[in-house]
């Protein structure tokens, strides 16, 4: 992301931590700008971002790191 997009995302993270999920549109706008520049998937790398950009919310795959880690932990615990 650009510096401006990074600032939007950081503000959104702070807002989500404060309980304000009304920043979803701003986060989606940044994701769509990245997609317009060729992004073929989005990784909401901060746990809070996954709350406002769930899988299926964009026209490209959204990879939730926390879900991926949780699924892997369960697989390892089951011996797979």
From the structure above, extract its key features:
80 residues; mainly alpha; Rossmann fold; globular
**Helical content, roughly?**
55-70%
Distance between the termini: 36 Å
Low-confidence stretches: none
Count the strands? Answer: 0
Order of helices and strands: HHHH
Tell me what the structure shows.
With 80 residues, the chain is mostly helical. The protein has a single domain, classed as Rossmann fold, CATH 3.40.50. It is 56% helix and 0% strand. It has 4 helices and no strands. Helix 1 (3-17) runs antiparallel to helix 2. The longest helix has 15 residues, at 3-17. The chain is globular.
SSE blueprint and pairings:
Blueprint: H1 3-17, H2 24-36, H3 49-52, H4 65-77
In short:
With 80 residues, the protein is mainly alpha-helical. It is built from four helices and no strands.
């Amino acid at each position: 992301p650009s510096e401006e997009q990074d600032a939007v995302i950081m503000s959104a993270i702070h807002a989500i931590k404060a309980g304000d999920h009304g920043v979803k549109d701003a986060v989606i706008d940044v994701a769509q700008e990245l997609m317009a520049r060729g992004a073929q998937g989005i990784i909401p790398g901060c746990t809070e971002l996954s709350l406002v950009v769930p899988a299926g919310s964009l026209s490209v795959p959204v990879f939730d790191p926390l879900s991926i880690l949780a699924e892997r932990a369960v697989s390892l615990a089951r011996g797979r």
